[in-house]
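Fill in residues.
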């Protein structure tokens, strides 16, 4: 620490000292009761100035080593800087050091979050690439065996695999948009019956191919949401129902209107979810027993549905009885007047 920097940091103290001594000297000199000579006043100022200089020298030497250590730490060390800081000499320095420690802790937490996010992204992409290779390989196999099958059967098989590829691509696209969601949605009034009809038509081939019955009831109600994002959410839920429902099964889609919310219920009579998996089905990358044993799965569908629903102000719950049924409920809370709530 250079002397001029030390003095510049205490410029107001120095100015205060000179103003104070000038004031005291003036009062003493012009006092009519006690007469003090100019020499005595000069002597008082000289002694006071010397004591003040000694104080500044002591304070400078006291802080010099502290700031030299800080300069060394900041200019030389590349890591573990916080733990290398010198012991604070006063309360002010202690507060600043506590502030640095807190900022460092928050910074480390952010770094850990970024690292975990990067790791999760890498894990997802590895899983995604692995899974998307399956329908691509299936397409090649269909093409290779096309000479032994009719044109219609070949095209149907190719279309099925392309649908699988499209679903994986859509998952990756929506996953990449999770962090930028706030700039990419538009809330409108949506008719639930119309939306579900559109969704069922999209999966008509799967319903027909597996001979799964579909029952729609009480869907004539409107909700406020973003149609594109909500359609993706419901598509992931319905895709899961179709995937885990056996041939000749049944899927029921119904609505319920309550005082505080509206609900959309998608229920199937498929293989269900084990009790130890039910609380983790919305976790990122979690495939569970069913996903590992029976089907290839990235474990991202329900995670994306839950995340996007939360961002839209909705939420999803799930109930299941293994080997019997699974019931997924999308809750649409009704808007409550802000002033009535806050007051």
């Amino acid at each position: 620490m250079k002397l001029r920097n030390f003095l510049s940091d205490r410029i107001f103290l120095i100015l205060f000292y000179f103003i104070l001594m000038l004031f005291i000297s003036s009062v003493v000199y012009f006092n009519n009761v006690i007469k003090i000579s100019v020499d005595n006043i000069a002597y008082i100022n000289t002694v006071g100035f010397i004591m003040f200089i000694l104080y500044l020298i002591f304070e400078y030497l006291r802080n010099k080593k502290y700031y030299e250590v800080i300069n060394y730490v900041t200019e030389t060390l590349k890591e573990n800087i916080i733990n290398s800081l010198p012991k604070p000499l006063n309360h002010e320095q202690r507060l600043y050091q506590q502030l640095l420690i807190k900022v460092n802790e928050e910074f480390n937490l952010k770094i850990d979050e970024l690292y975990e996010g990067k790791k999760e992204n890498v894990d997802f992409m590895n899983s995604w690439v692995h899974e998307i290779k399956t329908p691509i390989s299936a397409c090649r196999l269909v093409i290779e065996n096309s000479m032994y099958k009719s044109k219609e059967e070949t095209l149907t098989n190719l279309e099925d695999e392309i649908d699988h590829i499209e679903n994986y691509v859509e998952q990756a696209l929506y996953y990449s948009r999770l962090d930028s969601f706030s700039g990419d949605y538009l809330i409108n009034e949506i008719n639930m019956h119309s939306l579900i009809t559109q969704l069922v038509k999209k999966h008509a081939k799967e319903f027909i191919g597996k001979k799964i019955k579909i029952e729609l009831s009480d869907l004539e109600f409107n909700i406020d949401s973003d149609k594109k994002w909500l359609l993706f959410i419901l598509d992931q839920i319905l895709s899961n129902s179709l995937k885990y429902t056996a041939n000749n099964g049944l899927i029921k889609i119904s609505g319920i209107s309550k005082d505080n919310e509206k609900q959309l219920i998608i229920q199937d009579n498929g293989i269900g979810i084990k009790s130890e998996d039910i609380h983790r089905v919305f976790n990122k990358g979690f495939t569970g027993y069913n996903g590992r044993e029976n089907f290839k799965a990235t474990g991202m569908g329900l995670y994306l549905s839950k995340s996007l629903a939360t961002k839209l102000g909705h939420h999803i719950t799930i109930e299941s009885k293994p080997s019997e049924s699974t019931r997924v409920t999308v809750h649409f809370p009704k808007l409550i007047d802000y002033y009535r709530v806050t007051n």
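The CA atoms of residues 195 and 231 lie 7 Å apart.
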